[in-house]
Amino acid sequence: MEYDEDKVDEMILALLHLTTFKDGMGMRAWKGHHWSAMERLYKRGYISDPQSKAKSVRMTEAGVQRAQELFEQHFVRKV
Prior knowledge:
Elements: H1 5-18, E1 20-23, E2 26-30, H2 35-43, E3 56-58, H3 61-75
Antiparallel strand pairs: 1-2, 2-3
Helix pairs in contact: 1-2, 1-3
């Protein structure tokens, strides 16, 4: 099955917004998503390298901002 990787990456980045939490050094998100998509988000500069033993990734400032924008665009109800 072929699919649009850019759309998948957008949805995963938006969903990372749901699992974002603050630690002592910035924002992190749990990394339980498709590995190929996580690697693409890393290459785009939104997250730290997902290939570590940590169960979460560090979100870059651009990643935090874009994740919030995408979450609001796709999942927030407009009243």
